[in-house]
Amino acid sequence: MPSTEVLLSPYVLALLGLCIGSFLNVVIHRLPLMLERGWKQESADLLGVTVTATPAISLAVPRSRCPSCGHTIAWHENIPLASWLWLRGRCSACKVRISSRYPVVEVGTGALFALVGWRFGAQPVVLLWCAFSAALVALAAIDWDTTLLPDSMTLPLLWAGMVSASLGWTIPLADALWGAVAGYLSLWSVYWLFKLTTGKEGMGFGDFKLLAALGAWLGLKMILPIVLAASLIGAIVGIAMKMSAALREGRYVPFGPFLAGAGIVTMLAGQARVLGWLGWA
Questions:
Q1: CA 110, 112, 115, 120 torsion: positive or negative?
Q2: How far apart are alpha carbons 93 and 91 in whole angstroms?
Q3: Rounded CA gap, 142 and 157, in Å?
Q4: Lesser CB count within 10 Å: N end or C end of the chain?
């Protein structure tokens, strides 16, 4: 039987990440549609009106199809990365180009899992950090596409961090608790200060919950570095998009992807190294 060192090696985790990345593509595409369908039905029920029923959708049903021609994707056309390369990035039926987002998410998740494996070593807790990383990838992509950070992902991520800390798998429980509190209240305070000053909403409540989840996993001392890094990168990307006309008037760059990215970087770097970079060690 293969040893734990082999099963949890970075190379095996990279293959696992490719498969998980394929599933994340489904989550990124379907979860917002599932939420939208639920919201419409709830609104109709509250208003007492009848709406045209939309087809039921879940993460498992219906089977994946080409959005252009409706071709049902066969199992051999759904192998992470390999199928996209074999099909040369096009649907086998209608030859319409398949978005490069799919292999990018798969390869990115595989690489991220490998980095997590090198960071934490061949021990069972590495799977927790892989799950944490996968959730952040999905949240970042969903927020970028829709400006939504679903409660169905941020809240379980927060509670998973608290439970993991309470079982002694990650960081001390007190650090996780106060990290979650500081994460939520810091952005909540910024939100209300901005709204009272300008009358506008500068961010969504999902950002509060995401930073609270990051605090539960990474601890109190990582909150400020995460916010600083996310704000800096977000400002640079926003200015670049504005200058290149990629950001339409009245639109804004979501903050969630930068929070998620900063959370991943601080996780991989470790608390001591991050604080050393800032001269706070």
A1: negative
A2: 5
A3: 15
A4: N
pLDDT of residue 18: 96
Given a contact cutoff of 8 angstroms between Cβ atoms, the answer to whether 144 and 191 are in contact is no
Q: Can you spell out the DSSP letters for 190-220?
A: HHHHHHHHHSS--S-HHHHHHHHHHHHHH-G
Residue 225, classed as helix, strand or coil, is helix
Looking at residue 262, its pLDDT comes to 96
The angle at the Cα of 24, spanning 53 to 226, to the nearest 5 degrees, equals 115
- E strand intervals along the chain: none
Residue tagged 């990474």 (tokens): 218
> Model-level pTM?
0.93
For 209, the token pair is 């919950």
How far is Cα 58 from Cα 56, in angstroms, rounded to an integer?
7
pLDDT in tens, 159-168: 999 999 999 9
**Residue 255 has which token pair?**
């903050």
* Contact call for residues 123 and 138 (beta carbons, < 8 A): no
DSSP 8-class letter at 250: T
The dihedral formed by the CA atoms of 128, 134, 135 and 138, expressed in degrees to the nearest 10: 180
In contact, 226 and 266? CB cutoff 8 Å? yes
Query: Looking at the predicted structure, is the pLDDT value of residue 70 above 70?
Result: yes
CA–CA–CA angle 160, 166, 172 (5° rounding): 105
Closest CA to 136 of 119, 118, 170, 113: 113
Q: Which amino acid is at 171?
A: I
Phi then psi dihedrals of residue 222, to 5 deg: -90, -10
Rounded distance between C-alpha atoms, residue 195 and residue 94, angstroms: 49
